[in-house]
Write a structure and sequence with these properties.
Chain lengths: 117, 331
């Protein structure tokens, strides 16, 4: 028996419960839609223009930075596990890696990528 | 208690299913009474009474809320992108709540004793942002879109700080398995990781509050400017599922804090007949801190939120990993 079994059963029960609740809600609740009710909420006024608007490039930039740092952390996690076996060698290796990353981090900071103005 | 109950049944799979059902029920009960506790505690802190009409001292309030939500109309606006709009609350709920299955509540009781438990919880909290982004995008409403974007950026920023804080725990324990982490803590000189990992603990707690969109960082659902953020267009039970997901996320994060920093199920002495006593004591204390923070601190500005994550917590987390490695090398 797989050890993941318990987790997936738990997740499935949670999902099933969510679905059941929504279905029950749809069965019990009244449904009286009309035109005004079905438009997007914008403080009671009719929505103006298209909602698929361009948004700030900065959100994308944060996503890119996240990717860099998350890959770094993914690389650090296995190192943390075998740290006892690697000892000083592993420490120095990671030290060099982190210094390079730190340079990139300071560069990103000085370029203003981390400042949200 | 549950252990004895389970010993009556011999078939493995039935055991697991039964345990899972009990865990789901317990989790949902916690979510329900967490909302009640939050309202009650904040009310007391603001010298109000809080809910006190439904049942003795308002104790049945969560069930009244649930019933009300079940009878609410499930409005689906015309402009929404239907498939994504339908699926988003479920993604949110499962990703936020499923982490409970991995937490070792007691040394003999963990639903799913996975070797990469910690990584799994981090992955789940990362996946949870999909539910929010999809909800924000598919609603086709300005408030929802802005809320979803903010939430996405905030969650991924604080995810890094949180992973770094947990990395030093992994470094000290030498394992991803949450049960092994607790055992490693009990064998360490201080018994809990709170003392050697005090920086890590604070980085983790701040990121956990930000990950759950709790008050100082609740920009994605800032009522005054974004109505309800990414779930503005949701109503009825779908809205409740997002609400459930938020509180389930709080529960998972608190349980993770207890497991990784506060020594899990262990206590100074054993309490007879109540094996889960110490775990729940610490767990409720952390949850109380969440509510306490909400009642105390005003909301940050968005640039401050991002600045705190990227410019303070990440360097602090990295420095902490480094210090931990040096100390582990020396001692």
């Amino acid at each position: 028996m797989s050890i993941y079994q318990g987790f997936f059963i738990f997740a499935f029960i949670l999902l099933a419960l969510g679905v059941i609740l929504v279905v029950v809600n749809n069965l019990l609740a009244l449904r009286r839609p009309y035109k005004e009710k079905l438009i997007a909420y914008e403080c009671g006024l009719d929505p103006s223009g298209d909602t698929r608007i361009p948004f700030r490039i900065r959100f994308y930039l944060i996503g890119l930075l996240f990717l860099v740092f998350d890959v770094e952390i993914v690389f650090l996690y296995p190192w943390a596990i075998v740290f006892d076996h690697l000892g000083l060698f592993g420490f120095i290796e990671i030290f060099v890696f982190m210094i390079m990353l730190l340079v990139a981090y300071i560069y990103a900071w000085s370029e203003g990528a981390l400042t949200w103005e | 208690m549950i252990e004895q109950l389970l010993n009556l049944l011999n078939i493995e799979i039935v055991k697991v299913i039964l345990a899972a059902v009990i865990m789901v029920a317990v989790t949902l009960l916690h979510v329900a009474y967490l909302t009640y506790a939050e309202r009650k505690i904040i009310a007391r802190m603001q010298q109000r009474l809080g809910p006190n009409r439904v049942g003795p001292r308002g104790l049945l309030q969560p069930f009244a809320d649930m019933l009300k939500l079940i009878f609410k109309e499930d409005v689906i606006p015309k402009a929404v992108d239907k498939p994504t709009f339908w699926v988003a609350p479920f993604i949110s709920l499962v990703c936020a709540g499923a982490g409970v299955a991995l937490i070792p509540i007691w040394k003999n009781f963990v639903l799913s004793n996975i070797n990469v438990g910690l990584l799994f919880i981090l992955a789940l909290s990362g996946l949870g942002s999909y539910g929010i982004l999809l909800a924000g995008w598919s609603s086709n409403s300005r408030y929802a879109l802005l809320g979803g974007l903010r939430e996405g950026a905030q969650v991924i920023s604080y995810e890094i700080a949180m992973s770094l804080a947990l990395l030093s725990v992994v470094l000290m324990a030498g394992s991803f398995n949450l049960g092994d982490i607790v055992n490693a803590q009990l064998n360490s000189p201080f018994k809990i990781y709170l003392i050697p990992q005090i920086i890590g603990f604070f980085v983790f707690m701040i990121s956990a509050v930000a990950e759950c969109n709790r008050t100082p960082f609740d920009l994605p659902e800032a009522e005054q400017e974004l109505v309800a953020g990414y779930f503005t267009e949701y109503s009825g039970m779908r809205f409740a599922l997002f609400y459930l997901a938020e509180y389930a996320g709080m529960i998972v994060m608190s349980a993770l804090a207890v497991t990784c920093f506060l020594g899990g199920w262990a206590g100074p002495f054993d309490i007879p007949y109540i094996p889960f006593f110490w775990f729940f004591l610490k767990f409720y204390f952390i949850l109380f801190c969440y509510i306490w923070i909400r009642a105390t601190l005003p909301r940050y500005r968005y640039d401050q939120v991002m600045g705190l994550g990227w410019k303070i917590l990440i360097p602090l987390g990295l420095a902490n990993v480094f210090l931990t490695a040096i100390f582990k090398l020396i001692f």
